[in-house]
Amino acid sequence: MNSIKLLVSILLIYSLSSCSKPKPPQYVGYEHFRIEKAGIKNTILATDVKLYNPNGYNLQLKSANLDVYFNDKYLGNSSLDSLITLPAKDTATFPLRMQASAMDILSNGAKLLMNPDVRIKITGNAKAGRGGIFINVPINYEGVQRLDLKELISLYHQQQRQEGVRP
Q1: Contact by Cβ (8 Å): 110, 59
Q2: CB of 42 closer than 8 Å to CB of 77
Q3: Less CB within 10 Å around the terminal CB: N or C of the chain?
Q4: Does a structural domain hold residue 5?
Q5: Residue 80: CATH number of its domain
Q6: What is the pLDDT of residue 58?
Q7: Does 9 reside within a domain?
Q8: Non-local CB neighbours of 103 within 8 Å, separated by 6+ positions
Q9: Distance of CA 24 to the CA centre of its chain
Q10: How far apart are CA 118 and CA 136, in angstroms?
Q11: Quick check: is 86 in a domain?
């Protein structure tokens, strides 16, 4: 009888601890920042984002809605609508696309030519969880990163030439 009580107690403690609120993923950085589509009204910027999962279990991101700011000026919005799994206590990389207007990009572009160190701010929320149970998790990141605008433009023109499109 005591062994049954012990087993039930252990299962209850395990169940309660496994249902704890997940810690939000931590932004580590980005790589391969690029322009996918350039237009006057709508430009698509893309990058591969690195996130660290501080939880002791795999964390799933189901959706996210993020606003991105460069040097305190709004750059654009990014939405995630596919399921991404972040491994436990590990860093994962996944593609992120952002819509921005040419005016927002140009207002940031002049400053980027002078100083490639950019203060990036990302705010929003994501649905994160595991086992089919998701909760809203706030996303708030601020940090300084280097972004070489000249190299970005050069890569975009090179990509356009390879695709046979005149930039």
Answers
A1: no
A2: no
A3: N
A4: no
A5: 2.60.40.1820
A6: 92
A7: no
A8: none
A9: 12
A10: 28
A11: yes
**What is the 3 state secondary structure string of the chain?**
CHHHHHHHHHHHHHHHHHCCCCCCCEEEEEEEEEEEECCCCCEEEEEEEEEECCCCCCEEEEEEEEEEEECCEEEEEEEECCCEEECCCCEEEEEEEEEECHHHHHHHHHHHHHCCEEEEEEEEEEEEEECCEEEEEEEEEEEEEECCHHHHHHHHHHHHHHCCCCC
pLDDT tens-digit readout, 120-155? 888 999 898 888 888 888 888 888 877 776 676 777
Number of domain units in the chain = 1
Q: Is residue 3 part of a domain?
A: no
Residue among 156, 164, 136 at smallest CA distance from 37: 156
Q: Are 35 and 94 in contact (CB under 8 A)?
A: no
Q: Which residue has the tokens 């990036």?
A: 120
Q: Which amino acid, one-letter code, is at 35?
A: I
What span, in angstroms and rounded, lies between the C-alpha atoms of 135 and 62? 10
Integer angstrom CA distances of residue 42 from 46, 73, 87, 129:
13, 17, 34, 32
Domain range for residue 57? 23-162
% of the chain beyond a pLDDT of 70: 80
